Amino acid sequence: MKAESQPLSAHHSARISAIDDSECALSSLSLEVPASIDSSPLWYLDSACTNHITRFGDSLENYHLLSVPQRIRVGNGETVDAIGIGTAILPVITPSGSHTVTLSSVYHAPEFGDVSLVSLVQLQERGASYYSSPGGVSVVKSNQVVLYGYSIGRLYRIRFQSAAFVTTRSGSRRVSETTAHSDIPLPDSDDMHQNSPEPQSEVVSALPTTLRTATESLNTWHRRLGHLNSDSIRLLSRNSLGMRIASGTVVDKPCLGCLRGKQHRQPSRLSILCAEKILKRIHTDIWGPAPVASIGGMKYFATWIDDASRFVIILISRTKGEALEAFKTLHPQRERLKDKKIKFLRSDNALEYGASLDRRLYRSTPSSAFADYLKTSEIVHEYTVPYSPEQNGVAERMNRTLLEIVNSMLHKNEVPSQLWAEALWTAVYLRNRAPTSAHPAGKTPFELWNGRSPYIGHVILKVFGSVSHVHVPKTLRNKLESHSRSGLLVGYERTDIYRIYIQDTQHIIRARDIHFDETAT
Question: How far apart are CA 258 and CA 511, in angstroms?
Answer without folding.
Answer: 29
